[in-house]
Amino acid sequence: PIRATLNTFFAGCDTLSSGKKAFSSYLELSYPLTDAVKVFAGASLFKSGMVYNTNGISLTNIGIKATKSLNITEKCCFPVYGILGANLSTKSYGGADKPSSLYFVAGITL
Predict the structure, then answer these.
(1) Which of 8, 79, 78, 4 is nearest to 38 (CA)?
(2) Please, which residues have CB within 8 angstroms of residue 6's CB and are 6 or more apart in sequence?
(3) Would you give the DSSP letter of residue 21?
(4) Percent residues over pLDDT 90 in the chain
(5) pLDDT digit string (tens) for 48-74?
């Protein structure tokens, strides 16, 4: 089954050039390949200069996430995950465009 999540920024410095709130919204679709591995793709839904650097609907990232539970004792485990993803948006830093980037994220689930 495909899973969808929708997130919207409603506070903070997420503004348009006019000074109005941008309410940047992000939709992510994911699909499990196995119980421990899923693929995902996310998109910005509206103009979002501060958060996603988009002018409308735009694919912003894709990736794959793997999870594993590491057993410490018979009764205690340590759930970990790793994400290999690509950020597809191009951001401008000091007049220079930063191209799409590949990233790896590792973490624990509490």
Answers:
(1) 4
(2) 25, 26, 27
(3) B
(4) 40
(5) 766 667 777 888 889 999 999 999 898
Beta-carbon count within 10 A of 1 CB: 5
Question: What gap in Å lies between CA 61 and CA 28, rounded to an integer?
Answer: 9
Q: Which residue has the tokens 């999870």?
A: 67
For the chain, what's the residue count?
110
Strands in 3-8's sheet, in edge-to-edge order, are 3-8, 25-32, 37-44, 58-71, 77-87, 101-108
* DSSP string computed for 40-93: EEEEE-SEETTTT-EESSEEEEEEEEEEEEEESSSS-EEEEEEEEEEE---EEE
Residue 42 has, within 13 A of its CA and on its CB side, a CA count of: 21
